[in-house]
Amino acid sequence: MAFMEKPPAGKVLLDDTVPLTAAIEASQSLQSHTEYIIRVQRGISVENSWQIVRRYSDFDLLNNSLQIAGLSLPLPPKKLIGNMDREFIAERQKGLQNYLNVITTNHILSNCELVKKFLDPNNYSANYTEIALQQVSMFFRSEPKWEVVEPLKDIGWRIRKKYFLMKIKNQPKERLVLSWADLGPDKYLSDKDFQCLIKLLPSCLHPYIYRVTFATANESSALLIRMFNDKGTLKDLIYKAKPKDPFLKKYCNPKKIQGLELQQIKTYGRQILEVLKFLHDKGFPYGHLHASNVMLDGDTCRLLDLENSLLGLPSFYRSYFSQFRKINTLESMDVHCFGHLLYEMTYGRPPDSVPVDSFPPAPSMAVVAVLESTLSCEACKNGMPTVSRLLQMPLFSDVLLTTSEKPQFKIPTKLKEALRIAKECIEKRLIEEQKQIHQHRRLTRAQSHHGSEEERKKRKILARKKSKRSAVENNEEHSAKYSNSNNSAGSGASSPLTSPSSPTPPSTAAALGLSKRCKEGKDVRFTSSASASASTSTTSSSLASCEPRGAYTAPAPGCEQCEPRGLTQLHPEFPKGNFEESRNL
Questions:
Q1: N or C: where does the chain have the smaller number of CB atoms within 10 Å of the terminal CB?
Q2: d(CA 415, CA 282)
């Protein structure tokens, strides 16, 4: 077969489901217009960011393209006069930032090709419809019985998966749908095993699996053909939409929001759970359950797109369950996605946010019980129930399924082992991504808490207390040093001998000590004042008691150490009379 003779090498490593965030960093006014500098980031990594420059006209063009969604988006209005004023530009920048926040947080808009090209032109500049047409044309060279009727433009949400309405030349009234898709970041099968498993899909027979008419693949993409169903998918039933309309038009803003009847919820839910259990028992990974992947055939639900897990494509709800570390297996992913689908069947719309704190009134409390086990805060925190456990819950346990078709899907042992290894690799990448998100969330929470007003006040109070404590400690240390210096100065002076019967006054003792130090040629310092009120008689008697120490030797003329002038300068309170008496002695 000459199908896709020169395929591009390797798989697409970029995960299209990783959300993009955009922040306008600055604006620059040129001669006739203003440009806005926008910082775009993929996921949580700051390193994975880039700058783009956009004018207001670019925003207006994007907004006109998104009008097909039927949403009222908050784009700031145009202004022809005065649109270069500084205040007006600042106000417009705030409005454009709000516009970016709205389109990047809307789950459907943020994943559409229009928004991706606006924010990330380097990775989404290719014309994927044209690429798909080229690949399909190559396929028709070797399979002339097929003919393209028309491209079904944007009927799905995936950027790299395209659909075409087909017919068989000898059966012109019969319509089929051809789907073509690139390989995704979770493709871990070898090329040989991958192509064998893709070609095995038409042999899969199950009452709740939509049958594949034809399937083939090469090293970089896959092509499958199924019968076209005029009734569309389960999501088309819920939103009252036409199958051939674009995805944005069908599901962004439904005209009428109304859930299904209780019996429909019970029957469809039981059928979907049965086919999930069948695939899990076979060891075949799925992980792509949502309402658009469930085809309606009368009162029977049939699962679509079994090839997605083989191609390595990320799940529609990946940005939801990647936030919860307990949803880390393909079975728990399917159960969580089933909760989303059950919510849509019950209320006619998707949940506003996940986890869901409280559920609106439902047709039965049994419905709420299943929703709580799959979408509540407790379930997302503690883990999902198994598919078998859901089948035993009151909502589905009493549903009787009548079908005569026997399931058949034979997978060789070698391919089962390859599927098991690929499944483990898919789960490993999810766990690693969840770990990074969890660490980033903790860091962000800590930074937010550290920068809060209450935390800043606490830090100011602690800083004041620490400053006061340091001041007190410094004063105590200074006082201790001052006291030690006084003690050391006092212990350095010689203490004269005194008579027990006639105590020597401090001034006289100081003078005697001074005379001795002067006699020995030592330096003299005073740290405490002598009493100026001591009587002369007491001083004379005290000096008389010290005669055995020897006569006083007069200092040499000009000796500053013993001059009265030096003593009075060093310590003014020292009485000159005491000094003269000690000198005469």
A1: N
A2: 11
The residues facing 178 across adjacent strands are 164, 225
- DSSP code of residue 75: P
pLDDT at 434 over 50: yes
Q: 29 by DSSP, 3-state: which?
A: strand
CA pair distance 429, 167, nearest whole angstrom: 40
Instruction: Determine, yes or no, domain membership for 575.
Output: no
How many C-beta neighbours within 10 Å does residue 154 have? 21
At 82 the pLDDT is 64
Interatomic CA distance for residues 585 and 579, integer angstroms: 10
Query: Containing domain of residue 187, as a range?
Result: 128-439
**Per-residue pLDDT tens for 154-180?**
999 999 999 999 999 888 889 999 999
pLDDT at 420 over 60: yes
* Concatenated DSSP letters of 514-545: HHHHHHTT------SPPPTT--HHHHHHHHHT
Q: Decide: 338 and 272 in contact? Cβ < 8 Å.
A: yes
* Residues 334, 226 share a domain: yes
Q: Are residues 382 and 404 in the same domain?
A: yes
What sign for the dihedral angle of Cα 21, 27, 28, 31?
A: positive
Q: Are residues 294 and 220 in the same domain?
A: yes
Which range has the worst mean pLDDT, 12-26, 305-319, 441-455?
A: 441-455
Residue 361 is predicted with a pLDDT of: 93
- Residue type, position 143, single letter: E
- The C-alpha atoms of residue 228 and residue 232 are separated, in whole angstroms, by 8
Point out the domain boundary residue: 119, 151, 186: 119
Question: How far is 414 from 303, CA to CA, in rounded Å?
Answer: 25
Distance CA 234, CA 217 (A): 28
Read off the tokens for 283.
Answer: 């060891």
User: Structural domain tally of the chain?
Assistant: 2
More confident residue, 560 or 348: 348
Report if residue 285 sits inside a domain: yes
| Residue reference for tokens 């020897």 | 550
Instruction: Tell which residue, 185, 157, 251, 246, has the closest CA to residue 42.
Output: 185
Strand-pair category, 171-182 with 161-168: antiparallel
Give dist(CA 539, CA 251) in Å, integer.
Answer: 114
| Tokens at 452, concatenated | 């809060």
Which among 352, 403, 397 is positioned nearest to 375, based on CA atoms? 352
Once rounded to an integer, what is the mean pLDDT over residues 187-209?
Answer: 95
Same domain, 109 and 195: no
